[in-house]
Design a protein that fits this description.
alpha/beta, Rossmann fold, 7-stranded parallel sheet
Length: 249
């Protein structure tokens, strides 16, 4: 029997891209997923439910802006009220606002840091007391190759993802003796809407820089997340797993 059978957790941004792949894999493996997203993601979550047929009852959608600490708190409270426990958290939600440093506005800088770095902190803060009380928890943060390498026109995104590495390692240290693991998965350029929105020249350049000369698949990232959520991965914490086709070694 899968160790995810009967597990209950949260996937932020779990209705699209890599998040949707994670949601589908976890539900197929017996888990229940509370998908957090913006209002526009509700229809996507319903499509996910329809695609999973008999497992549809194991996906719940909660509208929340993870960059708002109060919204994070209310969402966690609602999940606990509905299900009684939270076993895992996957911090996947993210946004971009690409522009060179010379042209980037202060609002664009702050918006990306708010969702991509403060959001994971807010969500972790809202669940860790509950996990400590139960003596069990799995947290996986979704980083990015650009947190390692930087990327032209993505100072805000790269800074947030690099910060997420530090947040992951610090949280892992603080929770290591509480039965809670905290890890990070850092995808390379992956076939999602965010990458599809890149200018064609930039996307082609990213593929050219990748030794495998292709985009990653969301499912390839999801499988690593699933591995880290497993009961048998309890001796892995504070790690950053690179899923990037060799783009950063």
């Amino acid at each position: 029997m899968s160790s995810m059978q009967g597990r209950m957790g949260i996937v932020t941004g779990g209705a699209r891209g890599i998040g949707a792949a994670i949601t589908k894999l976890l539900v197929a493996d017996g888990a229940t997923v509370a998908v957090l997203g913006l209002g526009a993601d509700r229809e996507r979550a319903e499509t996910l439910r329809a695609d999973l047929d008999g497992a549809a009852s194991r996906i719940d959608f909660y509208e929340a802006d993870v960059g708002d600490p109060r919204a994070c708190q209310l969402s966690v409270e609602r999940v606990l009220a509905a299900h009684g426990h939270i076993d895992y958290l996957v911090n996947n939600a993210g946004i971009t606002a690409d522009r060179t440093i010379r042209k980037m506005t202060i609002d664009e800088w702050l918006a990306v840091l708010r969702v991509n770095l403060s959001g994971p902190f807010f969500m972790m803060k809202m669940v860790v007391d509950h996990m400590v009380e139960r003596g069990f928890g799995r947290i996986v943060n979704i980083g990015s190759i650009v947190g390692h390498t930087g990327n032209f026109g993505q100072a805000n995104y790269a800074a947030a993802k690099a910060g997420l590495f530090g947040l992951t390692k610090t949280a892992a240290l603080e929770m290591a003796d509480r039965g809670i693991t905290v890890n990070c998965v850092a995808p390379g350029f992956t076939d999602t809407e965010l990458v599809a929105a890149m200018p064609e020249r930039a996307r082609a350049a990213a593929i050219a820089r990748t030794p495998e000369h292709r985009l990653g698949k969301p499912e390839e990232v999801a499988r690593v997340v699933r591995f880290l959520l497993d009961d048998n991965s309890s001796f892995i914490t504070g790690a950053v797993y690179d899923v990037n086709g060799g783009g950063f070694m």
